[in-house]
Design goal:
There is one protein chain. 36% of the residues are buried. The strands form three sheets. The chain has an eight-stranded mixed sheet with strand order 1-5-6-11-10-9-7-8. Strands 13-12-14-15-16 form a five-stranded mixed sheet, sandwiched between helices. The chain contains 18 helices and 16 strands. By secondary structure, the chain is α+β, with helices and mostly antiparallel strands. A hairpin with a 7-residue loop joins strand 9 and strand 10. The structure holds adenosine-5'-triphosphate and magnesium ion. Adenosine-5'-triphosphate binds next to strand 6, strand 10, strand 11 and helix 12.
Length: 443
């Protein structure tokens, strides 16, 4: 019997895999640029970690966790998100003792037992950042700017929504006001929200049910009830975003589905993708480190939904020609082809060296490269991809394979080429050919 994949869990292959790689590469390039160091964190954690951080009355913990007993009867869970584990690692490794502030980035799979649909999977990928010991609104501005830059570089057209949900001091009185208001409308709320009203009233503001929408629109606004400290923090953040020229909208009912947030929360949403339109979300969690047994250290972060961003980028990878393939015309020419393969492949390290100190032996090649556009384009293609054919067959067959695999150049290797230490380079787009001496690459 054929064994199939588990419901809601997908293989990432082909174009989607290429887009995932592009997202990963762009994410780590930009996070590194802003001072973040990549970390590799466990997928499996104690269940209690998520119950205590994400919150026991959230959808994630109530309905969506992959929890089980391991063989030692420990209650463990596949991580549903990245922040809780990052905070646990930050505390457990006492990173705060050796670093005045810490910036971490990570990329990996998360698990939530949800109803699978477009943009909602049971195993999905998040690219996330955490910035520990960052009390100032400058950090909020920097983190949001980083998220904005990543999406921009990936050509994802998303709108930013921001809000402040205050701190312990101002949220308490606001909650009382909100509960009073919601109680007066209780019979009109959806059944989920009637439960939320008792367990986690702020979450009512996040309800997508149209029945609740009108009630929410008239609810007391948290921004009118922030304490002086939270109000100032939010004002300063807005000023910083204005200077950074990051466009945003204020959404006073943005509360997020996790309990650990304080002050700033934000989401980037796209117009496509229907109901699953949030591609990146985050905020500040000033009390979480302390709640999980660490010192009182303020922090913030975000997570980007890689699967959803990939859906927005379907057109990002074009099937353009790239790279070169060697085509020896005969079995006898194999040793020569293999030698050419090695020389060409190694020669492209010179492209990296141009940026740094250059070895005098290679100086002549660099001079030629700078003068000869054709040669430069060819070597860039070699650096991108160089392959030997997987078997020697008739030249017409090999050309047709090179065409199907979208190579930019075919390197023809015949008797004449081997005897003169040459290769014939054929541009598969234009059909133009030129010859190149391998002497140039020999050390
Ligand atoms: P949603 O309201 O869409 O369920 P969320 O508030 O549960 O999102 P977060 O926990 O903030 O999501 O996760 C950050 C991002 O991870 C989301 O904005 C989304 O892009 C992505 N994400 C969350 N759950 C899933 C899922 N089941 N499948 C794919 N991506 C997801
Ligand atoms: Mg969710």
């Amino acid at each position: 019997m054929k064994i199939t994949k588990v419901k809601g869990i997908y293989d990432i292959l082909g174009k989607e895999a290429e887009i995932f790689s592009l997202i990963e590469e762009t994410f780590f390039r930009l996070t590194k640029h802003f001072g973040y160091k990549r970390v590799f964190l466990p997928i499996l954690e104690k269940e209690e970690l998520f119950v205590r951080s994400v919150g026991d009355s959230t959808d994630i913990v109530e309905k969506e966790m992959y929890t089980f007993l391991d063989k030692g009867k420990r209650k463990v869970a596949l991580r549903p998100e990245g922040t809780a584990g990052a905070v646990r690692a930050y505390i457990e490794n006492q990173v705060f003792l050796s670093e005045s502030y810490t910036k971490w980035s990570y990329f990996g799979e998360m698990f939530r037992y949800e109803n699978p649909q477009a943009g909602r999977r049971r195993q999905f990928y998040q690219a996330g950042c955490e910035y520990f010991n960052a009390p100032s609104p400058l950090a909020d501005g920097e983190v949001i700017y980083l998220a904005y830059r990543i999406l921009k570089e990936l050509n994802v057209n998303a709108k930013l929504y921001i809000n402040s949900i205050g701190c312990d001091k101002c949220r308490g009185p606001y909650k009382t006001l909100l509960i009073d208001y919601l109680k007066s409308k209780e019979d009109k709320l959806c059944s989920d929200c009637q439960k939320r009203l008792k367990r986690n009233p702020l979450r009512v503001l996040d309800c997508k049910n149209p029945v609740c929408k009108d009630i929410i629109d008239e609810a007391p606004n948290i921004l009118d009830h922030l304490c002086e400290c939270c109000k100032l923090h939010f004002e300063q953040l807005k000023e910083i975003l204005d200077i950074l020229k990051v466009p945003y909208k204020i959404d006073p009912f943005l509360v997020r589905g996790l309990d650990y947030y304080t002050k700033t929360v934000f989401e980037f949403k796209v117009d496509s993708l229907g109901a699953q339109n949030t591609v990146l979300a985050g905020g500040r969690y000033d009390k979480l480190i302390k709640e999980l047994g660490g010192p009182d250290i303020p922090a913030l972060g975000f997570a980007m939904g890689v699967d959803r961003v990939a859906l927005c980028m379907k057109e990002a990878i074009k099937d353009t020609r790239h790279g070169v393939i060697l085509l020896p015309l005969d079995e006898k020419l194999l040793p020569y082809a293999v030698k050419a393969f090695k020389l060409l492949s190694e020669s492209t390290s010179i492209l990296e060296q141009i940026k740094e100190d250059i070895d005098t032996k290679k100086f002549n090649l660099v001079l030629k490269l700078m003068k000869d556009e054709k040669l430069r384009d060819f070597l860039v293609a070699v650096r991108d991809r160089i392959e030997l054919p997987n078997k020697i067959s008739k030249i017409r067959k090999m050309f047709s394979l090179a065409d199907k695999k979208n190579f930019a150049y075919a390197l023809i290797i015949g008797e004449e080429e081997a005897s003169k230490n040459l290769i014939t380079v054929k541009n598969l787009d234009t059909g133009n050919q030129f010859q190149l001496s391998l002497n140039m690459f020999e050390g």
